[in-house]
């Protein structure tokens, strides 16, 4: 496909956009294992968020400080806040990510696919309270699809190698799923996802010393995918057909060092079926073995320590 376009006529969308849009809008999830795992993932992710609310610096204080109450808006689980869905998505997403305990996906680009629940839960609650009921199964379906989009894009596309943070994939996945939840057409989803790519990506600066800080716990929600989805629902033309692959000006050429974005396998339910949970210890997945070794050493040394102190 040539991107050396001289005409003002809008070209056909790039394949990455159409694959994401078709999957988000039309794919039927048929895997019992995916739904079972998604239900566990929902409980695990909410538990991570509730645990975070016990910490003074947690996102609960941000919502309190904003005072941006919207009666009939989206609720933030574990709090009394009702916010517009964009702010609710930010607060929910930051809350569940705050302690770094939620799920993990390890590939060329690692990440935490349950970060997508910020947008999914906020929009689901908002729609339900606006007279368009969203069932728990609908939420689980959205989770499976968001996990899949983020995870498959992560399999062979390494964004960290070019200095970009993995939260870019949360924005892309959440934008696709949330636009579909809001009733978007195929064109709406393509437009919204194209804007998600064109908005670029956060630099990984805040994940590495000496610049590490709390931003890594809320970075996935900036800017919220709900905003991008709602903006693109207003107009079928509010998008860029070649947002990811346009020559010279697209994501690939500008931020991915000219490398093509690849989809190594079709979208299905593979990611949710194989996602990793931090069951043993509340620590980053790559630290699980180290924590296990430390805890084993402590347990083994406990009797002798007790005897010595006695």
Strand order of the largest sheet: 1-2
Total DSSP helices:
12
Mean pLDDT level: 85
Q: Classify the secondary structure makeup into a structural class.
A: mainly alpha
Q: Give the termini separation.
A: 78 Å
What this model shows, in words?
It is a single chain. The chain has 310 residues and is mainly alpha-helical. It folds into 2 domains: 15-279, 2-methylcitrate dehydratase PrpD (Orthogonal Bundle); 286-310. It has helices spanning 15-26, 32-52, 60-66, 85-97, 117-129, 136-156, 167-181, 186-198, 225-233, 251-255, 270-274, 288-309, and strands spanning 69-75, 82-83. Strands 1-2 form a two-stranded antiparallel sheet. A hairpin with a 6-residue loop joins strand 1 and strand 2 (82-83). The longest helix is centred in the C-terminal third of the chain and has 22 residues, at 288-309. 44% of the residues are buried. The mean pLDDT is 85.
Write the layout of secondary structure elements.
Elements (H helix, E strand, L loop, with lengths): L14 H12 L5 H21 L7 H7 L2 E7 L6 E2 L1 H13 L19 H13 L6 H21 L10 H15 L4 H13 L26 H9 L17 H5 L14 H5 L13 H22 L1
Antiparallel strand pairs: 1-2
Helix pairs in contact: 1-7, 1-8, 2-4, 2-6, 4-5, 5-6, 5-7, 6-7, 7-8, 7-9, 8-9
